[in-house]
């Protein structure tokens, strides 16, 4: 455990030193405060929009940003250390591969989690003072917790990439493709399936398909509680056949644990 | 006699069709310094990785401190092993002290030990600076400090003196001698040969994963049967006329006698009987020549 914490501590301080924490927090805070205040601008008014509109806009934003940031933060975690030779050195230390991986995960995960908490938390506090509604805090807790899980999931996925390739530039390429597939292509494909194939897929089937993408689970978590008027596309269909919040969180959690376990498995078999 | 600290028995490793290391048998005793020589791709690093337990042998056995280094039981032995990899660039954005503290903590030590080690390798003045500002020599010193964490019982050093200036090299060998007198064993891996001879007890010569020769320098010299070069001064060609001596002259070096080791004293006495002799240079084959000899022999053997 001490070894894991030593690694985690180092990774966390790397995140502080590289200004990752501060820049992610600022990006999240600025965007979420901006959306909170100007979310209603489309309907011609400046001021705090309704809670559901705000959460819906924040979720659509976070679903693109968080995976991208998590992938950027961690894609070179292993391949970078492999290239500089420190990975081989670390493995001659009394430090197991799973300890190293978990340590990195805790360290970099903390960066993502803290940035999400501070960045989006700031607008939650702001909105709470404006509306004085306790509903704000509950909605935002769900939003922030699911956003953190989304971030952790993509951190784990980027470890998979980082451990499977032998060059940093390749890892960057794969990270970008992964982001594109999960954040954009997957939904387009679902929509195409929905529109293109008549009676091809049931609502339940669609929801199950969405479980294959952590970004979609994140959307479902945050949008299922809202007025469907704020939601459109494939999601709106899925929401009607929605799973319970608990099931969705379990699925999201599985999307953290599963890639992480596979990453450990790959790491253990990796030849250096 | 205690059991050897490191022992390889017919250990070999293959990647697909490639034999990175054919069966190698070697033993390293406590307090012994072994030089491991070979050109690039000879299997030096592979052998080190085997001993470190980073990779497992495809055949044969490897034992370090009585255990297989890749097993779980050998876990606690790892803090007793120091390793300096050949190509390592430490976390550039961290300071030297931060890098060393990180590694020290992973071995169960603290910042204080890290500072002491930095002092030992002589980069205390730069410890608060980021590693990216370090010169090659300073990086190498940092790497050495890292390998010295926790006074290891076994040290594996891959090209330790690359990038070190002569004074730092001397300091480095002093440290090796010191560690040796404290009972640590060292495996020094190098293709830079001069300077290393007086610090190693035994040498191993590897080529394309095969062990060509192993033994003390004297043993290797004997095996190689390389002649001793004797260069007399002041004889003005009388050597050519001396029937006992002229057979040792070769066309390539007309002023030097190439004498087999066992004939050395006889020839020297004969030379001393010449009145005009005012100086003598006697050079026994150095490690480099021995190394060349074994490599050439191996290569010509392969061609047949």
From TrEMBL, chain A:
Q: What Gene Ontology molecular function terms does this protein carry?
A: ABC-type transporter activity
Alphabetized UniProt keyword annotations: Membrane, Transmembrane, Transmembrane helix
The superkingdom of the source organism is: Bacteria
Tell me where the transmembrane regions lie.
Answer: 20-40, 46-73, 105-128, 140-161, 173-197, 248-267
User: Is Metal-binding tagged as a keyword?
Assistant: no
Signal peptide location? none
Q: Could you give one GO CC term from the UniProt record?
A: plasma membrane
Q: What is this protein called?
A: Uncharacterized protein
Q: Which organism is it from?
A: Colwellia psychrerythraea
Q: What is the lineage of its organism?
A: Bacteria, Pseudomonadati, Pseudomonadota, Gammaproteobacteria, Alteromonadales
TrEMBL record, chain B:
**Record has Nucleotide-binding as a keyword:** yes
**Could you tell me which Pfam families the record lists for this protein?**
ABC_tran
Which residue intervals define the domain ABC transporter in the entry?
Answer: 6-233
- InterPro entries linked: AAA+_ATPase, ABC_transporter-like_ATP-bd, ABC_transporter-like_CS, ABC_Transporter_VariousFunc, P-loop_NTPase
| GO MF, one annotated term | ATP binding
Keywords noted in UniProt: ATP-binding, Nucleotide-binding, Transport
Q: Which CDD domains match?
A: ABC_DR_subfamily_A (cd03230)
Q: Which PANTHER family match?
A: ABC TRANSPORTER ATP-BINDING PROTEIN ALBC-RELATED
Return the protein name. Answer: Copper ABC transporter ATP-binding protein
Tell me the organism: Colwellia psychrerythraea (Vibrio psychroerythus)
């Amino acid at each position: 455990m001490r070894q894991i914490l030593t690694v985690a501590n180092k990774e966390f301080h790397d995140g502080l030193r590289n200004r990752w924490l501060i820049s992610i927090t600022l990006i999240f805070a600025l965007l979420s405060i901006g959306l909170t205040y100007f979310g209603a601008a489309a309907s011609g008014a400046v001021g705090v929009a309704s809670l559901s509109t705000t959460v819906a806009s924040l979720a659509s934003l976070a679903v693109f940003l968080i995976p991208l940031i998590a992938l950027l933060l961690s894609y070179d975690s292993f391949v970078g250390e492999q290239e500089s030779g420190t990975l081989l050195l670390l493995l001659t230390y009394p430090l197991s591969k799973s300890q190293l991986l978990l340590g990195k995960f805790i360290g970099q995960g903390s960066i993502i989690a803290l940035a999400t908490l501070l960045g989006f938390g700031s607008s939650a506090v702001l909105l709470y003072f404006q509306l004085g509604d306790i509903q704000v805090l509950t909605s935002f807790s769900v939003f922030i917790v699911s956003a953190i899980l989304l971030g952790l999931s993509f951190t784990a996925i980027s470890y998979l990439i980082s451990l499977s390739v032998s060059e940093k530039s390749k890892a960057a390429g794969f990270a970008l493709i992964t982001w594109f597939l999960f954040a954009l292509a997957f939904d387009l494909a679902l929509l195409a399936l929905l529109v293109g194939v008549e009676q091809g897929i049931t609502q339940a089937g669609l929801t199950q398909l969405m479980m294959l993408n952590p970004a979609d689970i994140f959307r479902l978590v945050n949008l299922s509680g809202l007025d469907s008027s704020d939601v459109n596309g494939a999601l709106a269909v899925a929401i009607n056949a929605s799973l319970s919040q608990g099931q969705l969180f379990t699925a999201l959690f599985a999307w953290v644990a599963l890639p992480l376990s596979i990453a450990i498995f790959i790491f253990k078999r990796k030849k250096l | 006699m205690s059991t050897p600290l490191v022992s390889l028995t017919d250990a070999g490793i293959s990647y697909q069709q490639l034999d990175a290391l054919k069966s190698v048998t070697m033993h390293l005793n406590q307090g012994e310094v072994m030089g491991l020589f070979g050109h690039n791709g000879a299997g030096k690093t592979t052998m080190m990785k085997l001993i470190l337990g980073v990779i497992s042998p495809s055949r044969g056995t490897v034992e370090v401190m009585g255990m297989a280094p890749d097993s779980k039981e050998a876990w606690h032995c790892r803090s007793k092993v120091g390793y300096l990899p050949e190509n390592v660039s430490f976390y550039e954005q961290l300071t030297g002290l931060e890098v060393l503290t990180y590694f020290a903590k992973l071995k169960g030590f603290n910042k204080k030990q890290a500072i002491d080690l930095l002092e030992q390798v002589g980069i205390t003045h730069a410890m608060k600076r980021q590693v990216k500002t370090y010169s090659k020599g300073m990086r190498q010193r940092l790497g050495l400090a890292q390998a010295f964490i926790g006074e290891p019982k076994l040290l594996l050093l891959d090209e330790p003196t690359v990038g070190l200036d002569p004074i730092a090299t001397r300091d480095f060998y002093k440290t090796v001698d010191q560690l040796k007198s404290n009972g640590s064993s060292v495996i020094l891996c190098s293709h830079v040969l001069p300077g290393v001879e007086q610090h190693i007890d035994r040498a191993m010569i590897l080529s394309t994963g095969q062990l060509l020769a192993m033994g003390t320098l004297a043993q290797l010299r004997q095996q190689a049967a390389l002649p001793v070069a004797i260069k007399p001064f002041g004889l003005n060609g009388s050597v050519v006329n001396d029937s006992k001596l002229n057979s040792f002259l070769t066309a390539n070096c007309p002023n030097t006698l190439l004498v087999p080791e066992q004939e050395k004293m006889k020839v020297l006495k004969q030379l001393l009987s010449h009145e005009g002799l005012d100086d003598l240079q006697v050079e026994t084959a150095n490690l480099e020549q021995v190394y060349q000899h074994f490599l050439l022999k191996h290569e010509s053997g392969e061609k047949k």
